[in-house]
Amino acid sequence: MKPYAPYEGSRSGAAVPTQEDKTVSSIASVLEESRVFPPSAAFVAKAGLDADRLAALHAEAEADFTAFWGRLAKENLHWQTPFRQVLDDSQAPNYRWFADGKTNVSVNCLDRHLGSQGDKLAIRFEGEKGDVRTYTYKQLHAEVCKLANAIKSLGVQVGDRVVIYLPHSAEAVIAMQACARIGATHSVVFGGFSASSLKDRIEDAGAKLVITADGGWRGGNIVELKKAVDEALSAGGPSITKVIVLKRTDHGVPMVAGRDLWWHELLATQSERCEPEWVDAEHPLFLLYTSGSTGKPKGIQHSTGGYLLGAHLSAQWVFDLKPDDVFWCTADVGWITGHSYVAYGPLSNGATVMIYEGAPTVPDAGRFWKIAQEHGVTIFYTAPTAIRALMKLGEEWPNKYDLSKLRLLGSVGEPINPEAWMWYHRVIGKEKLPIVDTWWQTETGAIMIAPVPGAVPTKPGSCTKPLPGIFTAIVDETGEPVTAPGQGGYLVITKPWPSMLRTIWGDNARYRSAYWGQFNNKYYVAGDGAHIDADGYHWIMGRVDDVLNVSGHRLGTMEVESALVSHPRVAEAAVVGRPHEVKGEAVFAFVILKGQRPTGAEADALVKELREHVAKQIGAIAKPDDIRLADGLPKTRSGKIMRRLLRSIAKGEDITQDISTLENPAIVAQLAGRG
Ligand code: PRX
Prior knowledge:
single chain; alpha/beta; Rossmann fold; GMP Synthetase, Chain A, domain 3; 2 domains; 30 strands; binds adenosine-5'-monophosphate-propyl ester; ligase; AMP-binding_CS
């Protein structure tokens, strides 16, 4: 099997087991990175967790992981009704944590800081056009209470679902916190998703209310959020009775009488006090839809108490949060990273959160670094795709700005190639700052594997070791742990953890089979291939299922295929990933048409139309980079598409696989663009 490099130039690439060839035991790593970067003495001296304290936490968790989480939950969160039972595993793998305790997430993020630091900045917001707004903890609390009262006045009750479709903004955090305050379950839909994706999510969640904006700014353009909501609701959306609209771009959007209400008008009359709803720890705080290996995105359901504990502690441990930190996680609130490290984790720790609405290159390639300088950002957390894109633009951009306040850098969303890691280290970190490469997922709720920066030396491309209380293994296809260093296998989590997903909304059977079925409920199966080196460091090799990672975003190949076949001219489609220098993976689609296959300009026009069609069905992030029109797909005699072959073709590799078992071997030359 060929070594898999998730992007060109990777040095940590190891072969990844794929859907068809799950012979993980034969996977060995190649070209292991050997550079090691210990934390600086200056960082260690001030770190919240040094090696000894970290070792003590690990020892405590290993001795009794339930008691460990119970102690931390008691000490770190406010409980209105204390829990008596830490873990209920009677319905495993539907685990329940702190189930008889009652709490409220918004109280833990806001109210508990009012006495000690009410006038400290909770949020610093900058819009793409340069408008800046700040909120102290007191001000944020007041805005959250006003919106919470407004939502309640519209008839939203505990447990009702509210869809949030807003630009990346302070108001998005306010909306999430307001839902949490009254016990409504939010489901944030990323503003880049299309009306059609929004509609599917509204329907699946059975949401009562949508909170949106007239628009948002991105790349100098208006993102037409309200228009998408109107389109989503025009095609049905019977569960939605009201739409709250934030005025942001002020470009005049139609309002539907009796349904649409302006945020500012609605809040003008609301009280700045709102009694929190004390909910059970297991109460669903939010649903977040993510791609799996079928065409239908999964509504990942997270809890209140366990989720908050994970977001709170991981933010503290991994980012070494201190009272004077300005924490900037660049992820949009529409993704899990924006939930845990914009809306919840840093606020529950009382930090100042930076939020930037727009694109990194508007008006020029120095925008991120200008923001870091002007807002005094101390902790910067972004995705490898952004690092690679910024790296391409040249180091003269960051070098123009004073980045001396930065003290910690983070990476998330996909494997970081050592070249990008070294650039981050040298150009942004000035060879002094620790880099925390954090592995986790929508489903895990919080960071699972990452270096604790004052304690764990880093290696470029490795997310290092699990956090205290998180137990991982690499197993082969029979579920047996792989013990030889460097040997690849399935990454699994062997014990439940508080911030784990609770179920898939409306489909518990899918939850049980997708995450626990493979090894008979023994392990949580992450869907990633990985290997562990002789020092116990984890190296993530990418997804083992039909999920792509495009610019750090998950995308199911089946979702893109369904979008393509919904076009009237498409008979069949197969989508695979191909390595991409900046995006990590790019979407490559093979399309079989109904009727005659066009050529020349007609084919070009159709390809363009199909790309737009996918953007309309899913969102711009899913637009295929390449579409190859062909007369057929490579299928075995039993009718199975040989995706492995398609992946090789997409990569432009010579076909060395045996194609004699194909029903139509002649098609291979055509698919490869030679026929
Ligand atoms: O393949 C892994 C990759 O992103 C997947 C999870 O995607 P999502 O649920 O969208 O969450 C992304 C942000 C937490 C994982 O299964 N991934 C995430 N972080 C890393 C990573 N791969 C390698 N290294 C990471 N640090």
